[in-house]
Design goal:
With 291 residues, the chain is mostly helical. The protein contains 11 helices and 2 strands; from the N terminus they run H-H-H-H-E-E-H-H-H-H-H-H-H. The protein has a two-stranded antiparallel sheet with strand order 1-2.
Amino acid sequence: MLNIPIQTILGQLLLGLINGAFYALLSLGLAIIFGLLRVVNFAHGAQFALGAFAALILSRYAEVPYWGALVLAPVIVGIFGVLFERLFLRRLYDTEPTYQLLLTFSLGLMTEGTLRALFGSSGVPYANPLIGGINLGFMFLPFYRGWVVVVSLAICVGTWLVIEKSKLGSYLRAATERPDLLRTFGINVPVMVTLTYGWGVGLAGLAGVMAAPIYQVSPSMGSHLLIVVFAVVVIGGMGSLGGAILAGFALGVLEGITKLVYPPASSTVIFAVMVAVLLVKPAGVFGREVV
């Protein structure tokens, strides 16, 4: 039996929870876009990186502090998403899903390539807005990382409540499930669809801003996370918002524990769980079977 001190286990659990906060936030954005629009958004990783670079540009050229960028950058990324949906993606809703996938994949490649041409391939540091931390006994927790976990959880729960429990959320769901019925109430369905995509993209941009002080801001920072986040969404259940949130935090913790028990498996444990879930419940843990 492994003889691991409890302090080490608790510390690794907390580190896994921090990674899980980003998994949950990114997975939620993906789940919104797929669950409501049935679009597999392969540009999500690039939009995550775009959020981090938007914060960097605002800080470097407009002297906007981090807390201002935390509001402005997701809005900017969301506006890019709205323009993309209105100009390009909307034309493919009635075609095979493969065309939507290829379009979003191309957008991701173009975004990453543009960022690489403008800023280079190496990472750029972003200043930490919350200096210091707290000694928990088993580890020293930086204030900013603890803040990331709390805010990510609050945003995830708040988004879930809006979409699942509010009138606005019912309109968003109806815009794709029963657009004909929604039009009878005088609701502009295309605008609702556009706002849904912009919302999901904005969440990716927000995650990028929150990740900027922790990771190096680089064009490929999103592509490294994209495949993992897709696996999280599949495990939670494609289109299940609650499943994406719970799976994101849980798998971040599992990844952290795996690094402690058997480090070589930490990079593949999420995919192993995905394979197991697909074999037992193809729709995902919280997904609904299509009959």
